Amino acid sequence: MREAVFHPEARAEVSQSVEFYEAQLDGLGLRFLAAVEQTAERISASPEAGAPLAGGFRKRIVSGFPYTVIYRVWEDYVYLVAVAHQHRRPDYWRQRADHR
Hints:
By secondary structure, the protein is α+β, with helices and mostly antiparallel strands. It has one domain (about 5-90): YaeB-like fold (2-Layer Sandwich). The protein has helices at about 10-25, 30-45; strands at about 5, 50, 55-60, 65-75, 75-85. A five-stranded mixed β-sheet has the order 1-5-4-3-2. Strand 2 and strand 3 (about 55-60) form a beta hairpin. The longest helix has 18 residues, at about 30-45. It is globular, with a radius of gyration of 13 Å.
């Protein structure tokens, strides 16, 4: 199992989405957060299982929400570069390719 490290902007995307969903329905933001955390855990446990993308990136879908976690696998950790809405701004996260 590899450590999952969030890019600071990916962490901000999660926070903004939690706030959005919580404003829509009490508790929905927390369900979104839990789904993202479960996705990060699955990535950490099986990083090669995500669908490959160009440039060495991979993706996993956040269960129950229209979001995808985009990440890159490094030797001792996985770098979660984006928590991207599936229907907005494709590939905006590509400039985040550098790891911590």
